[in-house]
Structures are given as C-alpha cells and as structure tokens.
Amino acid sequence: MVVSLLLAVPAAVGLWLVSGGRALPVRPARWLALLTAVATAGLAVGVVVTEAAVDRAWLPELGVRWSFGTDGISVPLVLLTVLMGLVVTAHAWVEVPAGGTPATFLGCLLLVEAGALATFTARDAVLFLVAFEVVLVPMWVLVGRYGDPHDPRARTEAAQRFVLYTAVGSTTMLVGILALVAAAGTADLRELAGGAGAALGPGAQMGVAALLVVGLAVKVPVLPFHTWLPPAHTTAPTAGSVLLAAVLLKMGTYGLVRLPVATVPDGFGRLAPVLAVAGALGIVWGGLVCLVERDLKRLIAYSSVAHMGFVVLALASGSETGLQAALYANVAHGLVSALLFVLVGGLKQRWGDVDLAVRRPALRETSPRLGFALVIGLAASLGLPGLAGFWGELLAVYAAWAPAADRPRAVLVTCAVVAAVGAALAAAYALRVAGLVWAGDRPDPEARRTADTVGVERWVLAGLAGLVVVLGVAPMLVLSVTADAVATVGGAR
Fold first, then answer.
1. Which PANTHER family match (predicted)?
2. 214 near 189, Cβ under 8 Å?
C-alpha cells in the first residue's frame, strides 16, 4: 500500500495540476507542489525503512504484474529522486518560467518524479518499460513549452530531438525486453536475474543484450547517442535541467544494471569492450568540448556526457567494484549536476545569458555565496578528493584497470588510461570556468554587479553543496547500501 501511494501521490496531483487545476494561481500551485513533494519524500523514507513492496496481478493475460519494491540498487536512486523533487518544487519559488500556466509547469515536475520513482521501483520488465516511457511527455513539455523564451525555435528543435532519440531508444529496448520475456517465460526481473535470462543460448543472449544496451545507451547518453542532451539542457528551464541530469540520465544507467547486466550477463560481457571504449571516448570528447565551449549551461551539459562515461566504463569492467562505482557515481553526479544547474540557472536569470566571453565582475567579489557554491560544484566536478565526484571516478578507473577475469584486460586498461586523461581535462575546464567567472580574469569596471543568492535559492544551493561534501567525506553512506545487492547481480563476477 505504501509503495502504491509513493507512486500515486505525485502522479495524481501532477495530473490534476496539468488538467483540472491549470487555472490555479501561482502561489497555491507552488504550495501544493511543494507539499506533494514533501509527502512523497516521507513516503519514500517509509518504503525504504520498512522495505515495503507490492506484488499483485495487473495484466494476467500478458503475465504482467503490478510489482514494485526496493533493494540496495534502487534505494539510493529513489532517495535521490525525491530529493530532486523537493529541490525543483522549492526552486519554483525562485523561478516559474513563462510559456504556460504555473500549475502545468509544476504538474509536469511531479509527473516526471512519479515516472522516475516507478522506474526505479518496478520489479517487472514490462512495467519498467511503461514507467520509463511515462517520463517522456512531461519532460517534452518542460523543454518545448517552458524552455528558453528568447529562442522558441531552439527549444522546439531541442524538444523534438529529445522525443525522437528517446522514442527510438525505447523502441529498441522494447524489442529486447519482449524477446527476453518471450524466451525466458517470465517478466519478473528477480527471476530473470536469478537465472531465467541466463538460460538463453549464447546467440540469443548476445542479441537481447545488444538491443537493451543500444536502447538504454540513448538515455544515458553514451557516445555517439549523446547529441540530444546539450540542446535539451541549454534550452530547458532550470528545474527541467536538474531533473534531466540528476534523474532521467540515471534511468538509463539503472536500466543497464537491471536488464542486460543482471539478466543476460554473458551477452553483456561480450559487448562490454565496445561499451568501455564508448565510455572512454565520451569522457575525453566531453572534456575537449568543455575546454572551448562558451555557453556555461551547455558546458555543464557536455560535462555530464563525460561523467556518465565513467559510469558506463565502470559497468563494462564486470566486477563488483565496477558496479559499486557506477551506482555511487550515479548519485554523486546527480547531486553535483543539480548544484551546478541551479547555480547556472540563477546566473542566467541575473545576467540574461551565460556566455563566458562576456566580461563580468568576479563572483568572489560581488556575490561571495554564489561564488562559493560555484567553487564547490566545479571542484566536485573535476573529482577533487573530499567531494562527491572523487570516489566515483577513482573507483571507475580502478575497476577498469582490474576488470573481471572474462573481460579483455588490454582493452579495459587502455580505457582506464584514457579515462584518467579525461579526468585531467575535467580539471582544466573546471579551472577555466573558475578563472573566468569566480576569479574574474577579465573584469569590466562598468559591468553591473551580480546580486548574491538569498531566500529559497540560498537554502537550495547550501543543501546541495552540503550533500556534495557529506557524500565525499562519507562515501560508505551509499556504498554500504548497495554492497549486498551488487554481490547478487549476474554481471558482477
């Protein structure tokens, strides 16, 4: 019952806001969305603490069950999702973008949260796909309707590209899931991971794994399927960028763990070298683009491509350490990217644009609180020890350096070296941004001073920065939760 409420509360309120409640004034709509996010967070904590689950017939003719629950793999992502729900609904007190009614905007945020929670708790492969797809429409509305008001054509093209890429990836994944379920005779993810999927022949495993990996790689995104992400981030409202980076990308990597890694481990193992190479190239490519990118928001988007490269590299290693690294890096990137996108969104509100070529006063002088948050975010992004980004990158490179016995060591070690070079590039572009924005290498005495953060925005930035530090100092908060579940995943040997 509690699990069903966890999904029903944000979904019901979100649907009402985008339909019957569209005329609701902005202040009541904000309060309703925030209180819904608080209630959802409370329900999530209850589900995690009590290990509540639901499992009952839903579509018996198709063998699909209404089955939801959590384990060590999904718990960190469930908590991350409800935290981001609180962040974006609280941030609505700072910014409700034009383009439609405030109620519709807030309703779409809640619908994205509900779909993500259903994805991370689904225990049925078909149910997982349905939940995965639920997120598509509200995110399309957030990008296409509430995106950058100064460039309608860009936001329309970004929304269309997002839908096209995601739809193609989901269709590919659908074929893989149907083939897996038809061959194994069950859609239960626990049975599939317990050996039902592994009972397939080598050729069938390879084919199913290829379909699932390609379909999910679009959502991660993995090079070369990443080209939809920077335009979507650049034009999306701040709340949309936060959900996209901190939640939606994690649905792709979570799906890789739940489906190909756990259910067809041998097939995934044969594809792992290709995935590792793609991840390593994504790390370097993202870093190189960030070195020359002028738009700060697009720069953060390309840095996400690089950081997700570490996640897929860790998964490709095939070891328990690699899975631990991937799951930890998912959470760490979610917090760091949310911090940076809230910060950059605030700067865009103040400046009108975030072009790094424009001369502006140094944040450290005019806006010390914003400047400090920027330094924390950039330091975590480059993998500074003591902050959340460090452990994910370190463990990912270590896992690739010492992969599972059935993985080609020469390929993985080469990818580890390339990833280490990519980490150095991250330090270079983070220092470039810090020099231009925080230190003000090119000050303009006639430029307008930047207003510092106050009110809700200050608390949102302080909370995210604090969690980035806490997770960097105490990574076992996540690693201890995922350890037991990782040991049972078929792909970790």
1. NADH-UBIQUINONE OXIDOREDUCTASE CHAIN 4 (PTHR43507)
2. no
